[in-house]
Amino acid sequence: MKKIAISGGKKLQNVLVVGGGKGGTAILKIFKNSHDFNVIAVTDPNEDALGIKLAKEYGIAVGKDWKTFINDPVDLIVEVTGDEGVYREILEKCKKETILIPGSIAFLIAKLLDEKENLIKQLKEESYKHQLILNSTDEAMVVIDNEGTIIFFNRSAERMTEAPITEAVGSHILEIIPNSKLLRVIQTRRMEANQETELKNGKKIITTRIPMITETNEVIGAIAVFKDVSEVVSLAEEITNLKEIQTMLEAIIQSSDDAISVVDEYGRGILINPAYTRITGLTEDQVIGQPATADISEGESMHFKVLQTRRPVRGVKMLVGPMKKEVIVNVAPIIVNGKLKGSVGVIHDVTEIQSLTKELHLARQIIRTLEAKYTFVDIISHSEEMNISVEQAKLAAKTPVTILLRGESGTGKELFAHAIHNASDRRYNKFVRVNCAAISESLLESELFGYEEGAFSGAKRGGKKGLFEEANNGSIFLDEIGELSINTQAKLLRVLQENEIIRVGGTKPIPINVRIIAATHVNLEKAIANGSFREDLYYRLNRMPIQIPPLRNRKKEIPFLCERLIQKINRDYGRNVEGVTSAAMKVLMNYNWPGNVRELENILGRAIIFMDYSEINIDVKHLGFLSSESSIHTSSSNIHVKNKDLTRMVEDFESQVIKETLENNHGNKTATAKQLGISLRNLYYKLDKYDLANNSTQ
């Protein structure tokens, strides 16, 4: 029998597979994928055998009996029936030059062929990866054999030499790089490092040449790795820039107002700046080269602590220097490439910080007084009545006209005042707020108009500016304007007419440019009738009246107000309430809201206080206190209207509400005024008016 050409032969070996079961199917797949064998037929008595079906798909001849193909030119017969008798019969009848092998041996041979092809494939892939890596490097690489022929030339070499890779590979090295010394390296068998040479295009390069020597000490070629000198020059320039940056950083450190000290990894001082000497009183001679404890009067060294822990420290109070100056210290480690090189500390003078803190606190107080915080975006307006008021306010904001905001307590008159100022051309100037009912009459005049030195006992030396002067070129918001005394009203009228004020105790008029935004919940027309409010001032203030509707007339806004107010209360109380249940919302919608939006905020705040921290929605049970408050308004609604005009009915209603609220607060006037949303002075006025003073106690 002849030997099988497993590899290297050019003639394909014809194969006959006898048996179409699982074994035959596996053998067929292996031989089909091989480039060295040609399967001419597959036989099996069972026409439905897997191997028969697969052979048909491949376009290979099939048959029931192997004898049909025994006389064909067959080089190899693979018997995979597993029947010893079939094997012996084929052995007797096949040609002498035909090789007969069992399926197990054929499977093993084919497997080896398959592994050979996989190894060749892997070798090609690895070779491609190496080529890719070498072509990706920024350094040029040229490899020659021992005859001087270039066998590898990467893209960086192509870029520097300007010779195409296809032209370079296969060419002699001296054709591409005429003055190359690679041939000398092959002869001397020695590496030449960092040699300067010049390419054919005039570029200067730094090159390293290495001979390639096998384990048997045979020279098979040489490799050159080179880099453009211009890139090295660029690096040198970068180093120069770094030195300039270092000089700049040192200049910054020296000019900094913050005291800076730097120690090395052993805790010895290596740098301080002038601010350090100014704050601690220590000079460079007392610190540089000395341990980090040299500047400490009381406390441990934060430099040593940072060097030990490699972690920064922040805000440590210490006493430093001979004067025991109180300071706050921040120290951080200096780590370069993972190695601790020292630490840097920044010292802040506590006295300076305290002074700045005091100034900041004062500034915040001034801002809170002079800054308008709200805009029209903050006003919730989802009803026709509120939309009209907002549009009127927007129009008024664009003019310098005096504005009178009218509406019940708690409707948001101050919110409108803020928004009007911020929408006007005065928004970058001061916004001063004055509650006319909260300041006693004796002080109100001097607060509004200021006073001269010696105007009264206790007056400041040099006098004092009034709020109108503070608000010059800005806006002043006079809340509860109806509470002003007749005397103060006369002076306010002068401001409106003449645009000037006269300080208390002074005679010289001071011109001012202030827009007045007034607000009141009082019926000014009635106040004019009973002589408590000047009619001429009323007409001056009432040029642009804006009526803000009560909450009971715009109940559709309650869900939107609840959403906004709950967000505010969450911030104030540190809670996380999400909203109001539909049942609780129904209770809120059915309530009459005598205190308007202010009362809504109070009720929501009270409900949130009653809630457990696990609860996220306000429910009916959290609003139980509303039933007692709503009873006031239920009983107050039982007013007889027969033979009464509107003014009399309103007075009767107001009298009954005050009386019942006073009774619910057990005669406490302060609590009653707070619940009704009016000033205590206004409550006294109404108690006297309705003859209720004898029915209460303070």
What is the strand and helix layout of this fold?
Layout: E1 13-18, H1 22-32, E2 37-43, H2 50-58, E3 61-63, E4 76-79, H3 84-93, E5 99-102, H4 103-136, E6 140-145, E7 150-153, H5 155-161, H6 165-168, H7 173-176, H8 182-188, E8 192-198, E9 204-213, E10 219-228, H9 229-255, E11 259-264, E12 269-272, H10 274-280, H11 284-287, E13 296-298, H12 302-309, E14 313-320, E15 325-336, E16 339-349, H13 350-370, H14 384-397, E17 403-406, H15 413-422, E18 431-435, H16 441-449, H17 467-470, E19 475-479, H18 486-498, E20 500-501, E21 510-511, E22 515-520, H19 524-529, H20 535-541, E23 544-547, H21 558-573, E24 579-580, H22 582-590, H23 596-610, E25 617-618, H24 626-636, H25 646-664, H26 669-676, H27 680-689
Parallel strand pairs: 1-2, 1-4, 2-3, 4-5, 17-22, 17-23, 18-19, 19-22, 24-25
Antiparallel strand pairs: 6-7, 6-10, 8-9, 9-10, 11-12, 11-16, 13-14, 14-15, 15-16, 20-21
Helix pairs in contact: 1-2, 1-4, 14-15, 21-23, 25-26, 26-27
